Amino acid sequence: MKKFFLMTLFTLITGMTAVGQNLFSGSTDLEIIANEWEKTILTDVPDGSLATMLDCFNKKWPTWMLRSAVKTMKKGVDGRETYNNDQIVVRNKPKNGFVEVNWWGDAERLEFMRACYWKRSNGHRLLGIYFGGTNSYPNIHFVCFYDYDMKRHTLTPEPQIIDGFRTTEDRKFYYDLPEEGKELRITEYGSQGNFVHIFKWDGMKPVFSKSEKIKDEVDEEHCDEEEE
H or E element: which one contains 113? Predict the structure, then answer.
């Protein structure tokens, strides 16, 4: 019985490893995308739908995340794609212009992608693609912002649209692209405390509105207990 259990466990582990290898095969390293996306205008983008814009990005920098997202979005309905016992989860909200992809299959390689777009007052669209994960480099997180021009059918990088918020050695920033509404939030963690920075949509871009300190609920509960 013990021998059967060990053989089953080994089969599951090796199976997950094989799935992970096949899944990531052909995917562009996130560090390469982080270093290159600002330098390239993407052309021949037929329309401004989220699926089409992401498909164009994926042709330049292929990843398993964008591949899974585009496949699900092309179904045209809310839904999710599963792969090997839900190791890939795709959340698609076509009415909100939002999609999210997560991989839960390997603790040594955790990756995710979120994307959305805003309609701009000049008739263009602002696309945001948020990549994050851990691999040979820990905690890589970055957002690619593009302006979509439907007359020229181009996606032009806008790397400075959110000024002053970059990951540094001692502070980390995580982007909450809007799943509902148009508000962008950036959560900051560091030795000086944790904050959420709120950006309101002004018709063309997210504009800083306010910062709020994140309360440490654990410490607050502990203090209340001591006062009693």
Answer: strand 110-119
